[in-house]
Amino acid sequence: MLVLGIESSAHTFGVGIVENGKILANEKEMYKIGNKGIIPAKVAEFHARSARRVIERAIAHAGVSLRDISGIGYTRGPGIGTCLQIGMLSAKTLAYRLGVPIVPVNHAVAHIEIAKHFSNMKDPLAVYVSGGNSQILKLENQHYAVLGETFDIGIGNMLDNFARAAGLNPAWGSTVAKLALRGKFVEMPYTVKGMDFTFTGLLTYATKQIGKVPIEDLCYSLQEVAFSMLCEAAERALMLTKSKEICVCGGVAQSDRLRQMLALMAKEHGARLGYAPNEYNADNGAMIAYVAGEALSKGYSVPIDKVDIEQRYRIEKAKV
Amino acid sequence: MTMGMNLVNEGAEAKIYETRVFGKSILVKVRQPKAYRVKELDTSIRVSRTRKEAHAMLLAKSKGAKVPAVLAYGKYEIYMEKAEGILLRDILSNADKHVFEQAGRELGKLHNAGIAHGDFTPANILVKGGKNSKIIIIDFGLSTFTSSEEEQALDVLLMKRSIGKDQFSSFLAGYSSYAKSGIVLSKLAEIEKRGRYQSRTLSSAV
């Protein structure tokens, strides 16, 4: 069964094609944030212009024909409304034209499932870290239960915000990571409550130090503190669930330092850390196609007139 | 330092050893270094948390709350009296309602003293004795010095999520001995209404 998946929850318009669990194509176009961040209306316009091109490229790359597609998946949420709309409409149009079933996919579930697929794990503790989300999850009765999460903003958002305030370009986490390589440690506020954590206090503090402390030191310490908070919360969850597997996924899972820290933590408890290759940690269509394919193989799809989006589609509400 | 001590428990942050001093059993809680943290951060977290935990226990005790006595503390370790009993968590379904009432009263005492426990669950309450059992509150590792109603409400919320409905009613009966309990409970209602986490509370209640 050949399934095409569309992802458009934030800055990336991605299209993936998966055949029975095997990824044949993963094409994407990313809105350039420069030093400004994401402007919802502009990104939606960008997606609308990219849609056709990215779909055609994915089809060509997979070496299949549009007519061979037997199912469509799309991101229902969570994400930016205007962006989700474009992906949903593209998916709905395709499903309607091809007369194939359509499957709405929870973006967070897709990140976790693709990481599990690549790390060959069945029931790991999941650490999902991206721009808008930072959660620690475990599967319970076919739903991902949130054991811990951010009380305010996502870790990626925090790093991006700092990068913007410091005038870095491109203004996001990977630039912070580069500068961090040459930094040394300065104290910053550290807030973990059980398995939950907050990032705004840290962000405000670090932002106020810009210009007073070398930028490399700020980048280094911001990363070290934020990642340590995640590791501590994940460690507590690991001890609670007695899990022997952890997978880290989402855009921030591309960070080498975060992976290294989680691996060290996992090792202390005799657990293994897994993650997907980077192109599948960043937002992508393949993960949507993959989950839609799994759902279709179990006979799940929704009637085309019931297709919608939900900006605040909480992960625990999605059936897995 | 840990020679002649038996490891009795291991948490995410600390190891707990038992040893004997003048024939009496005491516990030593030692905060462990974490390889994933850079050394500066690791030391600062362990030192400040150890000190805060010891201070919270000492203050709670001085205000008449039922907590283990702190005998001494160092940079990374706290020496404390060994409290006897069974964890409320392990006898939750059989526990008498006055145990929950006492738990509520003890939390009220902590809040009155300006301490939020931070992890107030049946896993951190020891129950001793049969019919007229007494309780002892343990593990102040996540406690904070605050009188914020938000933090106090979070203590109550954690308990609410961990015990049954009737048990929680008994708990509230005890907690009402705290003068500001009414304000805390309206804060609790507000927290539970917050959109982002509503379904999470529901799902964890399943």
Task: Please characterize this protein's 3D structure.
- The complex is a heterodimer of chains A (320) and B (206).
- Helix content of chain A is 43%, strand content 21%.
- With 320 residues, chain A is of the alpha/beta class.
- Chain A has two domains: 2-110 and 280-317, 2-Layer Sandwich (Nucleotidyltransferase, domain 5), CATH 3.30.420; 123-276, ATPase, nucleotide binding domain (Nucleotidyltransferase, domain 5, 2-Layer Sandwich).
- In chain A, the strands form three sheets. Chain A has a five-stranded mixed sheet with strand order 3-2-1-4-5, sandwiched between helices. A five-stranded mixed sheet of chain A has the order 8-7-6-11-12, sandwiched between helices.
- In chain A, a hairpin with a 2-residue loop joins strand 2 and strand 3 (22-30).
- In chain A, 56% of the residues are buried.
- Chain B has 206 residues and is an alpha+beta fold.
- In chain B, 43% of the residues lie in helices and 21% in strands.
- Chain B is built from six helices and ten strands, in the order βββαβββαββββαααα.
- Chain B has helices at residues 39-62, 97-112, 149-162, 165-175, 181-193, 195-205; strands at residues 6-10, 14-21, 24-31, 70-73, 77-81, 86-87, 115-116, 125-128, 134-137, 144-145.
- In chain B, the strands form three sheets. In chain B, strands 1-2-3-5-4 form a five-stranded antiparallel sheet, covered by helices on one side. In chain B, strands 6-8-9 form a three-stranded antiparallel sheet, covered by helices on one side. In chain B, strands 7-10 form a two-stranded antiparallel ribbon.
- In chain B, a hairpin with a 3-residue loop joins strand 4 (70-73) and strand 5 (77-81).
- The radius of gyration of chain B is 18 Å and the shape is globular.
- Mean pLDDT of chain B is 90; it is low at 201-206.
- Classes of the chains: A alpha/beta (320), B alpha+beta (206).
- The interface between A and B is medium-sized, with 30 and 22 residues.
